[in-house]
């Protein structure tokens, strides 16, 4: 697994080397290491899920650098890992009589439970896309602000659709770099459907105070927009950026 760290470090040193600029850098060796270390779960010739790859890649780097799930940390967890509390409460079936529901709610099975969990990224759910067309017979593409889909993590109740459970997510610590994964693709019985909803990002995001987070040293986070010419003006850098570049051998 250390081959993945070695090839990734080499690729980053080629990309960010200030003394040996290259107009073209081939990631072929890095991709071969991904195929080998993932046991062909991610292949060069086959498109995979980006979120699955991100989760595997960060955890693989953390493990290869000697990190563990609980105690030993690495630069990967220092930069990307945060923590949250997940509150879960089971609901009785809605078709049951009111008296039976009241009795079930007294059982320990239906009491709210809490677990501490860590995360490398936050998954954001988009609202359902409208089915009706506008007056020009075109599908309406809705727009939502980032804070509207971030409401999932404000500590209030959030109902899951697969089972009769109510969940609450409460962020307890934010990482220096906070990754958002917006769920656009859903699978049905026939094909994969894409949600075209546009998410409007602000320049800065304030998540370091309640109800968003109970404890954070990064109250004001800069939003980085990556385009054809790198990072956009106005985006703020992380205090650990120099440490990351030093780890990659760029400083």
Automatic annotation (TrEMBL):
Catalytic activity: Thiol-dependent hydrolysis of ester, thioester, amide, peptide and isopeptide bonds formed by the C-terminal Gly of ubiquitin (a 76-residue protein attached to proteins as an intracellular targeting signal)
Domain of life: Eukaryota
EC number: 3.4.19.12
Domain USP: 1-251
One term of GO molecular function: cysteine-type deubiquitinase activity
Enzyme class: hydrolase
Coiled coil feature spans: none
Classification via PANTHER family: U4_U6.U5 TRI-SNRNP-ASSOCIATED PROTEIN 2, UBIQUITIN CARBOXYL-TERMINAL HYDROLASE
Name of the molecule in the record: ubiquitinyl hydrolase 1
Organism: Anas zonorhyncha
